[in-house]
Amino acid sequence: MKRLHVVSGLLGLVLPLLAGAASATELRVVSSGGFAAAYRALAPDFERRTGDKLATEWGPSMGHTPQAVPARLARGEPIDVVVMVDYALDDLIKQGKVEADSRTPLARSGIAVAVRAGTPKPDIATVEGLRKTLLAAKSIAYSDSASGVYIEREMFKRLGIADEVKDKARMIPAEPVAAVVARGEAEIGFQQLSELKPVPGIEIVGLLPQEVQLYTVFSAGIVAGSREKEAARALVRFLASPEAAPAVRESGMEPLGAGAAR
């Protein structure tokens, strides 16, 4: 009888642990590069708090590369949560691919300028300084996501230099612009500050002047076909929480969730 009591006691300790392991969820997440630095800092904390596991991949919010979030959803990849540019998320909501009531703004980021480490920092403090810098540059690179689309379609025109730079400016698909600048393949690079900061081999000159700046909002949403809605909602809440705000700021973005005022 004594041995039976011991065995019963051990089972009482082990079975809850097994039940907890069995209930752990794997969430499949795709995030754009703009939120990647903050997400990488926050993901381990979420896993520790919940016991759930995050299977994460990266892809731009728009564009035609296979890694882009719209392309992944179009071919039916099993994804639970997406983190991406807000207006691109809006398109997916209209298509019924992301649940409308799950959309949660997380952060906003401005466009910054980078040069290769060790090279002189050009003048971008004013609109005229930026204009002269771009006219003098031998090569210019920008991303294939929201910031690059704005630069190509609007900013160059607002600066009155679209024709002058068209042959030396190029959009970079599926790779951080900073990596291209670090290799010396572009003299000037434009991308979200949060995407430039983690890449070695560059120096960040600064943000664009306010007159031509574009702030991009990054939001999270739950994919309509997700089978892990409860865990997905928990992740989205955490990414927008006061606990997440310091990591968001450290990555170069301004928090927009519950921790925005802290």
From TrEMBL:
Offer one example of a GO biological process linked to this entry. molybdate ion transport
Q: Gene3D superfamilies, per this entry?
A: Periplasmic binding protein-like II
Signal sequence range: 1-24
GO MF annotation, one: molybdate ion binding
Matching entries from Pfam families are given as:
SBP_bac_11
Q: Which UniProt keywords apply?
A: Signal
Q: What is this protein called?
A: ABC transporter substrate-binding protein
